[in-house]
Amino acid sequence: MSDDIKTSAEALEAAAIPKMHEVHSDPNAKGAAGTKLPKAAQQPNKPKSPAQWAYERLIIYIKNFEEQLDNEHEVAMGFTGGDAGVLKIEGMGFFDPDVVTFYGADQEGAKTQLVQHVSQLNVMLRALPKQVDQEEPNRIGFRLIQDLETDDTVAS
């Protein structure tokens, strides 16, 4: 227990800061909870929509998942609650206040886009083999996190 005395404003501010917690059966598992959050995903300097919060948090999970893949695999998403299949993630975005979208290709290579309301967001990250003709795997998570660290999202 701490003897620190906090003002009401400090207590409210601390409650608004996003927190992440994970427990794994393998003590050496690398969960996303150990990830250094980019500024955009830390305490906001302006209000964010549920879509923007979902977008930013998904980026953290995708990047962490990719960090655990070998050079022969790329991140993909499986959809729960339906038979939409698997989407190899090639892009991601959001549309305020409450829509998140994923761009990519299905298992047959067909161009695919999922537009989903944040209240229905329920995805499973999967590792799929990279395309045989690719020298390096596509790492979308690293590009997304870089965008988060350098870009202030503006309305267009």
**Weakly predicted, low-confidence segments:** none
The residue-averaged pLDDT reads: 78
Amino- and carboxy-terminal Cα gap: 47 Å
Radius of gyration, in angstroms, nearest whole number: 18 Å
Helix run count: 3
Helix content: 10-25%
Structural commentary:
There is one protein chain. This protein has 156 residues and is of the alpha+beta class. Helices cover 24% and strands 24% of the residues. The protein is built from 3 helices and 5 strands. The protein has a 5-stranded antiparallel beta sheet. Strand 3 and strand 4 form a beta hairpin. Helix 2 crosses helix 3. It is globular. The N and C termini lie far apart (47 Å).
Please render the helix and strand layout as text.
Layout: H1 8-16, H2 50-67, E1 73-79, E2 86-95, E3 99-105, E4 111-117, E5 123-129, H3 140-150
Antiparallel strand pairs: 1-2, 1-5, 2-3, 3-4
Task: Note the main attributes of this structure.
single chain, 156 residues, alpha+beta, 24% helix, 24% strand, globular
